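Lecture 7 notes: from sequence to structure.
We start with the chain below.
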Amino acid sequence: MKITKAILTGGGRATRLRPITTTINKHLIPLANKPMIFHAIEKAVAAGIEEIFINVNPGETQLQKYVGDGGHWGVAITFFEQTGGPLGIAHVVKCAEKFIGSDPFMFFLSDNIIRGGFESFFQQFDEEKLDCLLAFAQVPDPERFGVPVFSAEGNLMEVMEKPQNPPSRLAQTGIYLYGPKVFFKAFGHIQKSARGEYEISDINSYLLRAGFRVGWREVSGWWKDTGKPEDLVLTNKLLLDELASDQANFKQQGTVMAGASLVGPVQTGIGATIGQGVKIVGPVMIGENCTLEACTIGPHVTIGAGSTVRQATIRESLIFSNCTIDSPITIAGSIVGDQAKVLTNPAAEEHRLILGDHTLIEL
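Predicted structure tokens for the same chain:
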């Protein structure tokens, strides 16, 4: 049963990522210098998806502008709103029923990043003739997720949503495959949870109880839910490490001045200038039209297009586009949003700060 349709998430408020998400849709946060949702789209296309449906918040225009109609990837992309407000991710899928019709489909939470692709999931779903395939991963905090419950014989029995006392350290990841009409039949048999949402764990538990063919697979390699700032930093690091296995992913398109030192996989975008006295230890990605002078960068750093860095030492951090960092400071494990400035005033005897809501500063 070939799956050619996919629903991807593009909505939500991502309050735990403020202030970054105050001005940018979470799914556009750059990881390895690429909007997060682009990773999901590319993996879906590689697995054979031809039509993608992305849910957006009411009034959203930013995501549509960046993603477009899918022509860049050779697929058709349609956007839709989750009507009635935030009623849970199962409700997101229900809102896409008119697009899915009677076809099998994949539902993927685009703020999840996995190593590798979806091909092995699609293959198992087809070979075992399943109605539903779930993906699980080992996590240190399963109480944040849907957690599978197994019988003494090892058979999957149900999925508990955010249990206070998780029965295992396996968590339901954001990869779900469903056969024709299976999901929508199940939706008619579930109720809102105590938090007022239609839980996808309830969908999957119903399918198990009703005797549908539900399989599961543990994610090989790593999987990250990017719900917190530290998750973004770690995911960026993991992606850079994965990309570093192929030097072709790191192209030198900028200008590297004499006296600069580049060690390991380093990408420089068109128009970027790496000045003398700069030391970069890869994996590092420098965007287009960046200027680096007398600074130390890396490992595991991405710097967005149009940014300038002088004097600073930066490692394991995400620097967004059009930032200015001109200060002899060390930055680590950090996220610096678009057009942010970190400057030093030699004459000042105190710090001057202009900060938005939910900002974190450690001095």
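Points to note: The chain has a mean pLDDT of 88. The CA atoms of residues 13 and 282 lie 33 Å apart.
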